[in-house]
Amino acid sequence: MIRVLVDHNMEGQALLLWGALAAEGWLALLPVPLRSFGDVGLSFDTSDREVWRFAQEREMVLLTANRSLKGVDSLERTLREEVDSESLPVLTVGQPERMEEREYRQACAVRLMEIFLDLDTYRGVGRLYLP
Fold first, then answer.
1. Which of 96, 91, 77 is nearest to 125 (CA)?
2. Residue 103: which residues within 8 A CB-CB, separation 6 or more?
3. HEC profile for the chain?
4. Residue 103 near residue 84, CB atoms below 8 Å
5. With contact defined as beta carbons under 8 Å apart, do 33 and 3 qualify?
6. pLDDT tens digits for 65-123?
7. d(Cα 27, Cα 18) in Å, to the nearest integer?
């Protein structure tokens, strides 16, 4: 079963995206639980590296906003150093501020389901961008 861990800084955008998935009937076809940091017991100040490892150990896809290469535990650095052929991809919303736009949200929802329906082929790629 696919499960998604949403980064703490984009929970609102993720709820909008899941609303679009539900409205289009995607979640009836492929139920994908969305979990927040609070749901899984992670603190907001958990390092990117720890969050990524947490998600990988629990076979969760991490949904995040755009991240940079700042610091030794940044998400980008973590991906460069730790991704292997079995790693689940990190899904990054390229423009999270646009999630309130219906067309953008729909495009993200379609891309998300394309990825979910064929998730194993994306193992080891590190990061995928939405839309």
1. 91
2. none
3. CCEEEECHHHHHHHHHHHHHHHHCCHHHHCCCCEECHHHHCCCCCCCHHHHHHHHHHCCEEEEEECCCCCCCCCHHHHHHHHCCCCCCCEEEECCHHHCCCHHHHHHHHHHHHHHHHCHHHHCCCCEEEEC
4. no
5. yes
6. 966 677 889 999 999 999 999 999 999 999 999 999 999 999 999 999 999 999 999 99
7. 8
Amino acid letter, 34: L
CA 46 to CA 42: how far, in whole Å?
A: 7
* AA letter at 29: L
Phi, psi dihedrals of residue 34, rounded to the nearest 5°: -110, 125
The alpha carbons of the chain give a radius of gyration, in whole angstroms, of: 14
